[in-house]
Input
Amino acid sequence: MNKETNEFDVIIIGGGITGAGTARDCAMRGLRVLLLERFDYTNGATGRNHGLLHSGARYAVTDKESATECIEENMILRRVARHCVDETDGLFITLPEDDLGYQKTFVDACRAAGIRADIIDPAEARLLEPSVNPTLIGAVRIPDASIDPFRLTMANLVDAQLHGAVALNYHEVTDLVIENGRVLGVKATDLHTGQQKEFRAAVTINACGIWGMLIARKAGITINMFPAKGALLIFGHRVNQMVINRCRKPANADILVPDDTVCVIGTTSDRVPIETVDDMRVADEEVNILLTEGEKLAPALASTRILRAYAGVRPLVASDDDPSGRSISRGIVCLDHESRDGMAGFITITGGKMMTYRLMAQEATDLACRKLNVNKACATATTPLPGSEENSVSQQEPRSFAVKAAQGRHGTMADKIDADTPLDRALVCECEGVSVGEIRYASQQLHVHNLMNLRRRTRTGMGTCQGKLCACRAANLLGKYNHDAKLAQADLAKFLGERWKGVKPIAWGSALREAQLTATVYQRLCGLDKAVARKEGEQ
Amino acid sequence: MKFDTIIIGGGLSGLTCGIALSQKGQRVAIVAGGQNSLHFNAGSMELLGNVDGEEIAHPVEAAQRLQPNHPYRKVGIDHLEELAQEAKTLLDKAGLTMSGNAKENHWRITPIGVTKPAWLTLEGLATVASSQLPWKAVTLVELEGFIDSPLQFVETNLAAQGVQVKVARIAPAVLTQARRSASEMRATSLAKILRNHQALASLAAEINQVTTADELVLMPMFLGLDDDALAALQAQVKPRLAFLPTLPPMVPGVRIATALQHYFKMLGGTYLLGDKVVDGLIEDNTMRHITTAKLQDVLLKADNFVLATGSFMSGGVVADFTRIYEPVFGLDVEAPANRADWTLAEVMDDQPYMSCGVATDDTLHALKEGKAVKNLFAIGSVLSGHNAAVQGDGEGVDMLTALAVAHRITNRQ
Output
């Protein structure tokens, strides 16, 4: 695809999992695709959730439609995105304070939705998952799993690009181009250069999650969305091997998910004003709730180091005045604005969940294809994502921890990472085993402009040291690859600021200790504050 | 077991105090956990580098403007210069030749190429007389595969000061062994290889190939852990060398820690490495004895005790969900009561938690339940009242409070 062209069949706004999945589906059906993301891919709700491959059990009692969608997609993703999935299975536990009678309701609902649900003895649950609260009085085993949203999104984007799509991050859509009741394209600003650009397409798909309501407003269209903030805590190591849920009606902090080297407890659910969704901060009260409830799932959490707190915003479509947002359907909302609002060439795909992104993409793409008179079937349910092809594990003998770790992260795509020279093999992030070669690969192939991008693509700085030393090493390398050390240095300071935002709500114990060590290295030792202040002063 | 003084904590302040007391003939034991914050030292000592956001050229003079609860106030601002001279002499006797004085700061070059005010700097490391670099042109040595010296940043920060920077790449075969393992390419590991004279000679040969005699060559300090490798390398190369500290693990910091430990032991001091104080008996405002994890059955007694356990990162003070406390003896701390007040929104702000620490009276006696413990002093980073990352006074507080307490202990005898 010629990157210079401004003409496409479809423009997708939003680089979360829905946008990435839609870009892939559209590209696989032969459409000329452009995807625009304002900041980094996965910056919204995609990058700020549990990383849970729902079985659907959580919704079985209250929302059968969502539950059925979940289990179907669950089984599909295990096949097509196997390098992103960790098949852990999950437990729904009943604690003494819970109603054991709910268990039967739950199991019946699961089975009705097609979700395998096996009641097991509490003793067996303790054997299967030693970290589980030993006082449990009931347990149900269900096919939950853990999924890496960053990896999943990038795999979709990589495949979209292999099928000719163009994807641009740091491109903010400033306006829709509208003539005679039809969206003809978008105006966008390249946030790195400030350049204004205009792109045209017969169909524009709004896949911006909660921000989608703001994009729709640009076409004079109202979508009543419900920004529901969910706060989560990441712990310093993987306390549990299986997903642990509370067997009760969905409530605060009742899911603990093992993700890669760590585990995540969440979430809370609170309605927030749309104006605040760009700067979500976790409040002390939310931390208290997460800890108090989390310890009930796995008592070891009480003595486990907390790495950071974060929050995302669910893009729920409002249907009633429910103050908590929990009874709202997690169902998919695919809006054809031509029939709904008289605005041709414009589609919004929202609602849903990360779990059902593929189905959301399919619905949006089906609609776009109808508008474009393209008659080609969706193949995303059966075509593996790059990295998850058959023989997913590389035939090449892993030479080191870093090579193995990279294979875990990139699946078969790890073969593209150079490991030939000593420099390529040098370890940048020791916690996660990220080599210089992997960082170069990410910076050249995976749209990495800064440390935050790099963290999401490679896990650099996600481990227990939280980027204490590797952030500086990695920033220096990015400065080299992007030929702008000054920018990379400013980015390093920004990255530390961003990390601090997640540490501040949990700044006690080891987190505070580590924060002081980080301040010692970057402020006291290196004088990064002075370097950045001077740079700002110069401008 | 009975000592004259037992010091808890084997970092810069504990070692300084231990050495000063041993020099006076005291029988001293230091209980040291293991690695300490000296391992994060870039080879410079800071006395006072910043007051109210302004870089300081004359630290002793500027100390007059310090906040009322700053530890220097308890040492006596009038005594700073004298104590600083004593500290320098002590370092010198330990085999650490350092340049600088307390009246006038010089500027060190940080691992990312920024200038920061310093009081003393190890011989061999690059220093300049003021914040503004006097150099027209320098050559940076880049060692292939070594990523703990962020030379892109050094280059851009030097260039921002108008310095012309040339990068000279070397890949000496002698370091191939280290490069084979990704995690061995650290400054301290390389320094161990370069203890070998032949290895050093081949490094010198590589440097000579890419530089000329008229250049000033800045080189990451991955040698000179505990030997004279810096001088030996200089003798074998054509250009003038100035060394840059790397990211941790840092050779100069380890060099200082090792030299001070050796000197303390040479003076007859007992260094209980890898041990931890678990308990102590305080009665009638007097510390009677302590016990350690490894010597559970032995009561360690002394006339005086010194707490030099460092700040949060060393475990000298601990924060939990509800409070900040001193974990060994439950001493009084100065810290905001509410967790929300421990931190500020921006990471580089003057974070309140950084100034939290053990409370003392005017003569550095630790307080417990509001009363001074007569024979228990607190020194160094465990003290409240200053932020070393912002004020540039970390090593000064460590060494000068240590020496002040050593004087008080020996004068009392």
In short: Chain B touches chain A through 56 residues (CB under 8 Å). Chain B is about 30% helix and 25% strand. Residues 40 and 140 of chain B are 23 Å apart (CA to CA).
